[in-house]
Amino acid sequence: MDFANFLAGFSQSLTLTNLMFGLLGTILGTMVGVLPGIGPALAISLLLPVTLTVDPTAALIMFGAIYYGAMYGGSTTSILLNAPGESGSVMTTLEGNKMARRGRAGAALATSAIGSFIAGAIATGIVAAASPAIAWIGIRMTPADFFAMMVLAFGTVGAVMGQSIVRGLLSLSLGLSIGLIGLDLQTGSSRLVFDVPRLTDGIETVVLVVSLFALGEVLYVSLFGQLGKIDKNTFKGFAWMNKSDWRRSWGPWLRGTAIGFPTGVVPAGGSELPTFLSYSLEKRLAKKKHDEFGKGAIEGVAGPEAANNANAAGAMVPLLALGLPTSATAAVLLTAFQQFDVQPGPLLFNNEPMLVWTLIASLFIGNLLLLVLNLPLVGLWAKMLMIPAPYLYGGIVMFAMVGAYVLNSETFDIWVAIVIGIIGLLFRRYGYPITPLILGVILGPMAEQEFRRALQGSAGDPGILIETPFSATLYVLLAMVVILPRLYKFWKSKQSS
Amino acid sequence: MQKAEKQIAKGELVFTSFLFATSVVVLVDTNNMIESNAVGFVGPKVFAFMVGILMFVLSSIQLVAVFRGSRGEPEGIEAGTVSQKTNWKAFALVLGGLVAYATLVEVVGFLIMGPVLYFAVAKAIGAKNNFLTAAVAVIISAVVFFGFTQGLQLYLPLGFDFIFDPAGGESNW
């Protein structure tokens, strides 16, 4: 770890402006985590217009804090309502809601907040230590290596997410196609423009993300949704836990962190997988001791909650060090960087040391703020659930429309947003995952650039793509990720028959 | 599997065909592209072809799967359930609100179209109290408008340019 820079970053992040934006981010993040229907990716994309006026460091601090905060807030909803506020909190719902019904909401909320804090602190520490090292490797990577990394990201996200691998990869390829729209940067040839002058600049990523998440969701809910009453558990006062809770929580916290972090670093498609793994692990371990699973076991809350926070932090490593987003939220964060003409990647730590170290230091501070905000105020956050859904959705749509417009002050962008919103609706209806599409749009042009650079260097010989041991290894890995689960299934079905 | 059990999901068939058609469009457009001479070894066509072929193959596979009876599970809704019945009225209200907003926001301004959009969406999702919804719509729109134009210094249309500014220039909001 680059200690001098880290300290400098800390002192930078303690300026009044940066602290205020960090605090604002933690509050907004907790809010969107609590509120159903809004996740961190949508919240950050709705706020992307602020990148037009706010100072880069402050804005990125806010976005980082939103990312962390959403993971905290998501657990509150899953414990108090029987509804996860966020896809990473689905596992928490299982035991957390049962604890709340038995009157143990305080302990469940406390173990998830403290577990999130511990996981966030450990994981952010590893981010600070590991990112420069990975950036060091990144500088030595060839264009072919980078291209292989992106293909790996495409393949795993496409294969892991969604109901079938074909759906995941189709979503990705639609994203890649959308990424083609506009003028080719190197030669100026226009692709998929159809003589529409406005399309020559391509589709704004902000417009795309906002409409896929916000408009797609609202159109979907209006057409198919049935928003019913959900039973609520109320909670007032200070969330805390007793001695036995502490004794039973620390193991799951650490194990959750150990599962969550690495699955955030590699493109495994967000926080669903690690929370599921952590839950199953705790369930299996609990069988030997006092097994409360199914009746509200604190281990089943502590583990997944630590895992989803460590996962969010883990995603920062490839994002900062390689410029490679591994989740939808990280992809939106990458867009935010690009709005400021800051390119995350191996050179970031050399070109923008102040910005990146301030951001990392702010993640530590934000994590602490979240703990302080959450333990005493959790009852207040729960009150936000009283906002009726119609008012919420009205606001989401309005923000999305404003966000689509203010970038270029063109109604054309609003029309584009409506069309993409309808695609988002259809994706939800027919079970296509959205994340691969977004990764395709954002990473596609970058992948093409590396691809062409690599082939330029080899005078057009495609052999260069698999020449380095690094890229060859990645392709083998990709093949394993895609094939192994299927082989396992095949083997299983053979055994049972 | 028995033939009678096979039921092709029609909506999904249309959507999959749309994806298939998109891949054809990508391939045709790439094929018709005029490359300049200075492209070097790999021009703008190669990657576009790769994307088009990938999508063509995948959507063909998926089309066959749909014909053989595969169907996607609709995604869940947070704090609600997915119903089998389609609520076209609510959907039309949201979409109508969006289209009206896109058409009119630069004509009559955000302070009018913002509340209209908010009201349409809130009603569609199930707001009961008309007066309260309208009041909230106006207040939130005003906060957003002044927050963006004054706070963030970003332009949102005030509208009525045809009255205030006959030359057709943009107002200074």
Plain-language structure description:
By secondary structure, chain A is mostly helical. Chain A has one domain. Helix content of chain A is 72%, strand content 1%. Chain A contains 20 helices and three strands. Chain A has helices at residues 3-13, 16-34, 40-46, 56-80, 90-101, 105-139, 143-160, 165-180, 205-224, 243-265, 272-286, 299-314, 316-322, 328-339, 348-351, 353-383, 389-406, 411-429, 435-457, 469-496, and strands spanning 182-183, 190-191, 225-226. Chain B is flat and about 55 Å long. With 173 residues, chain B is mainly α. The longest helix of chain B has 24 residues, at 44-67. The interface between A and B is large, with 79 and 89 residues.
Helix proportion of residues of chain A, in percent?
over 70%
Weakly predicted, low-confidence segments of chain A: none
Question: Counting H and I runs of at least 4 residues, what is the number of helices of chain A?
Answer: 20
The strand order across the widest sheet of chain A is: 1-2
Mean pLDDT of chain B: 85
**Which value, in Å, is the CA radius of gyration of chain A?**
22 Å
Helix and strand pattern of chain B: HHEHHHH
Average per-residue pLDDT of chain A, rounded, comes to 86
